[in-house]
Amino acid sequence: MSVESNFPEFAQDAVNLASEKLGAVAVDCSDDFFADKQRLLSDAEPEFHKGRFDAHGQYMDGWESRRRRSGGFDWCVVQLAVPGIIAGFDINTAHFTGNYPPGASIQGASSIDRPTDDDWVELLGEVSLHGNSHHFFAALTHDQPIRWVRLNIYPDGGVARLKVYGQPVADEVKPGAELELSALKLGGKIVAYSDAHYGNPEVILTPGRGVNMGDGWETARRRVPGNEWIIVKLGVPGVIERIEVDTAHFKGNYPGGCSLQAAFMPNLGKDAIVTQAMFWDEVLAYEPLTADAIHPFQVGSDAPVTHVKLNTYPDGGISRLRIFGKAI
Questions:
Q1: Buried b (16+ CB within 10 A) or exposed e, 283-314
Q2: Roughly how many angstroms between the first and final C-alpha of the chain, as a whole number?
Q3: How sure is the predictor about 300, in pLDDT bands with cuts at 50, 70 and 90?
Q4: What is the C-alpha to C-alpha distance for residues 59 and 52, in angstroms, rounded to an integer?
Q5: Same domain as 236, residue 114
Q6: Which of 15, 36, 68, 167 keeps 20 to 30 A from 206, CA to CA?
């Protein structure tokens, strides 16, 4: 089920704050008899396993409540991986055909602790849902960063995935603090890349090591001269001190080497950044890479930067890229 043709603008420059990989947790729900609530936040595409049954029936890749025989509705509370200003949602009912909820709404809360009834504000009014479909909705305007969301479904049923798109709002960063400047949960994001035939480029900024070869950024085999590249906007501008390039699980398809360029360009748009990146200063000269390993490199630059461009030679896959340094 492709979403390329109707992928909304609000999601194209945002982070899924409800990503399990980033650390989002489904903390509570009214009922998840048929399918566990945490599956709602999985970063993997939903799958249907025909003929796979567990003690509660057909295994469903999502959150599913039992058939409601009384009034009311079902709900699931999610603690987001990082607070943020919410731009919109994707309520995905993939593979739920005779058991999807016909309606839903979403509330949010900014409280540090588990929200009380008075803490919730409306982020999405009641909307209609259909089976086996993506449903993209823009969020209502709000002032405070949201830490929690509650998905309400009317009256019951199953939802495969909930994505909450927004811009992370990190806790106040003190100048000079040593951080992983590129971390997705601090606002780091992928700006552009030369190719992403396999995998999802965004995952190279997520915590932890890759779980398999699909958990990383991998290009097609290059059949013409040149090299591949990816540009990252740092979540926190700073002075780079060291980087890590992790080729976890990439064994016959890791890049032969890499280099890193960087620049301070806080106000340029995407197209200008891609063009200017050809001329950025090199802060790490070519270094060889090996299979399935973490490669730490010291960077000897004292200039503050907002963006980096990782060049890989000539092609291949990396699992994670981490840029460490001092915030400015």
A1: bbeeeebeeeeebeeebebeebbbbbbbbbbb
A2: 43
A3: confident
A4: 6
A5: no
A6: 36
